Amino acid sequence: MKTLLQPLQEINAYSSAKECIDRERLPMHISGCMDSQKAHFIYGLSKEKGWSVIVVQNEIKAREMLEDYKMFDKNVLYFPAKDVIFYSADVFAICSLRMLLVH
């Protein structure tokens, strides 16, 4: 894996991002890299901490990022977005269940 991480050390944006993480100046925004490079960049930054949370703008981008990131780390989870309607339905069902249990 050092072969994958070594080239990142030469990128100024990577060094700046790593410094932000070390100083706990979070959240941070990194722009200017291609989609295929983002997974590599995130992998390098998260290697020391052992975890990361990646948020993208839509489900298509999420699936693309998932596939790209799996090349670096097989231990990846994907949590799809839920519509507000489903959250409302879940809350209503829980409230109904509680009312039934109380009465």
Which helices and strands occur, and which strands form pairs?
Elements (H helix, E strand, L loop, with lengths): L1 H4 L6 H11 L12 H12 L12 H12 L13 H19 L1
Q: Give the overall form.
A: elongated
Element pattern in H and E = HHHHH
- Work out the number of β strands: 0
Low-confidence stretches: none
Q: How is the main sheet built?
A: none
What is the tally of helical segments? 5
Q: What is the beta-strand fraction?
A: under 5%
Structural class: mainly alpha
Report the mean per-residue pLDDT as an integer: 80
Helical content class: 55-70%
Distance between the termini: 59 Å
Radius of gyration in whole Å, from Cα? 19 Å
Written overview of the protein:
With 103 residues, the chain is mainly α. It has 5 helices and no strands. The chain has helices at residues 2-5, 12-22, 35-46, 59-70, 84-102. The longest helix has 19 residues, at 84-102. The model has no long low-confidence stretch (mean pLDDT 80).
Tell me briefly what this model is.
With 103 residues, this protein is mainly α.
Descriptive terms for the model:
103 residues, mainly alpha
